[in-house]
Amino acid sequence: MCHHTVYVWATQQGFSTRKMRQSIILIIYVRDRRIKVKKPIYDWGNQHATIFDSYIHALDDTGIRYFILRNYEGLPEYNESKDIDLIIEPGKYKSAAQLLLNTFRCHGVEYYYVVKYERVRCWFGMNSTSDFAIHIDLIEGYVNKGFEIFEFDKLYGNTAAYKEYRVLNQPYDIAMLLLYKVIGAKELKQRYRDKISAGYKSCKNEIRDILVEVLGSDLAQKVCSKVEADEYEWIVDHSKVISRTSKKIAFKKHPISTVVNVMRFLNEKVYRIGICPKKYRKMIALEAPDGTGKTTFIDALTVMLAETFVCDIEKMHVYHFRPSVLPNLGAVGEKAGVMKQDTNFENPHRNKAANPLSSFVRMGYYWLDYLIGGAICIRKDVQFDKITIFDRYIYDFIIDPLRSRINLPRCMRTAFSKMVQQPRIVFVLDAPADVIYSRKKELTLDEIQRQLEEFDKLSNLGDNFYKINANQTPEKMVLDAKKIILDKFCLKIQK
């Protein structure tokens, strides 16, 4: 289904402009989960403009030096990007952060969330009762993995006025755009290539001088020649060389401070990814009997979370049942030639339960997948601030052990489930048994009722279980979930 076809269909269904945009994202995503939708529609409205303008004036009033890094054209009324990058004076973050929090408070923002990458703090402000969300990055100079590529004073000395705001002059704006993306992201999108090419034509000598200072004469001349020839693939392919050279030069300028900054960077990375404290883990699990609309709910949830946390859909990492670092036991048995894998999933209770010993082995095997795989997957997601979503989790072994041919006492299955990574939120979808049965008749009405009673008991495992009424529209279900997510993952702004 092409974008135009989806658009026409959504129009015929009577969707509002914003909901229609959401539907386009959702349908494309649902039809093929391997298609990565890079960019939902981000609405920048009057409230965004007012917050941004108020914050900039607050920085000016307190004398905190700053400048807007790229994509400033159109501000404050319009913003073509999903966020705003503000380079602020090093050592002034605490004051700048407090000003931003006060600005959020004054303009009715309910929640905020901050994620830190070295000297970059990504601030998110959002509301539970509306779809408002804003993303502002506060960046203390340009430091990459401890290496100060550009000194703040140097950059600030090359700023210019744009309306009432400070921005980099054109030569530094183009040079920063090129190096920031190549060194930091190891990529260069087409719209950035076009901007670099256009800017380079008007001030090539100034840009070359800036690159010589950062990269040295030989490499700077090479990069400039590739920009002139529009050979950006060469630049991207040599991003490691560019990064390594810029860091060598930065180290020669400030060896002691560089060593200190590198140690701080490594310490932060070990703490964030290695130790991986709970506050960094945005992990959600969904449990429900078949027929409650799990798939529809998760699809709607991913779109809502992308909009709430102002990020790409691909930052919602959805797993089915388990991490799957270890292969399915049936596939292992088939490969070993001891059994044929059963791929008939129409009847989840088609096979008899295994004997206790075999059940213990099966349970132990999948428990290892949750234990090892969970640790690996969560850390990968935390590294890039992704939201981890499990469509069913280890609790399924408690609720419906026969689905996995497990024949063990409930207390033993519960013990296994407690010894793995626990989601911060577990949503349990709930609906009357007869409603569920009418939607999907894989299980008997009695079996559905039994599972619902078992799901009710899950709340005894901890305070992270939340029941969602599945006998309502997906939109209402997602709104109910949103308030819970914000309370768990974000900080509430006190009035």
Primary descriptors:
single chain; 495 residues; alpha/beta; Rossmann fold; 3 domains; 5-stranded parallel sheet; 52% helix; 15% strand; disordered N terminus
Account of the 3D structure:
By secondary structure, the protein is α/β, with parallel strands linked by helices. It has three domains: 1-35, no CATH class; 46-275, no CATH class; 278-492, P-loop containing nucleotide triphosphate hydrolases (Rossmann fold). It is 52% helix and 15% strand. The strands form four sheets. A six-stranded mixed beta sheet has the order 1-2-5-4-3-15, sandwiched between helices. Strand 4 (120-126) and strand 5 form a beta hairpin. Helix 18 crosses helix 19 (445-457). The chain is elongated and about 75 Å long. The two termini are 47 Å apart.
Summarize it.
The chain has 20 helices and 15 strands.
Question: Spans of 5+ residues with little confidence (pLDDT < 50)?
Answer: 1-39
Helix vs. strand class: alpha/beta
The fraction of residues in strands falls at: 5-15%
Shape: elongated
Outline the fold blueprint.
Elements: H1 3-12, H2 17-31, H3 46-62, E1 66-68, E2 84-88, H4 93-106, E3 111-117, E4 120-126, E5 133-140, E6 142-144, E7 147-150, H5 152-156, E8 159-162, E9 165-168, H6 170-185, H7 190-202, H8 204-215, H9 217-228, H10 232-237, H11 239-253, H12 255-275, E10 283-287, H13 294-308, E11 316-320, H14 329-336, H15 356-383, E12 387-391, H16 396-399, H17 410-418, E13 425-430, H18 433-439, H19 445-457, E14 465-469, H20 474-489, E15 491-492
Parallel strand pairs: 2-5, 10-12, 10-13, 11-12, 13-14
Antiparallel strand pairs: 1-2, 3-4, 3-15, 4-5, 6-7, 8-9
Helix pairs in contact: 1-2, 3-4, 6-7, 6-8, 6-11, 8-9, 11-12, 12-15, 13-20, 18-19
